[in-house]
Amino acid sequence: MSEEAPPSSPVMRAVFYDGCPGCAMERKLESSQGIPYKEFFFVGITTIASSLPISSLFPFLYLMIEDLHVAKKEQDIGLYAGFLGASYMIGRCLPHSFGV
Question: Transmembrane ranges (predicted)?
Fold first, then answer.
């Protein structure tokens, strides 16, 4: 019966440096256990905050287009409101496409 030989390479231990954001994240991941409720809370608040501008825009579009006399007929107000809402979302999408 032969005994097992010791491993040829020692187990690598993580080395953390002060001021390194990646090291801070790795240190936090090693020490955390369970569900990260605090991080979920921050993601939820950010999601709500980013959806507020679009949800506060659409109730006023119809009246804004009507008062500014953009549409010639009342039936066209919805069409122009759709164009304006779509252009708002395209404007939010384009900077992310170019990495701005």
Answer: 40-65
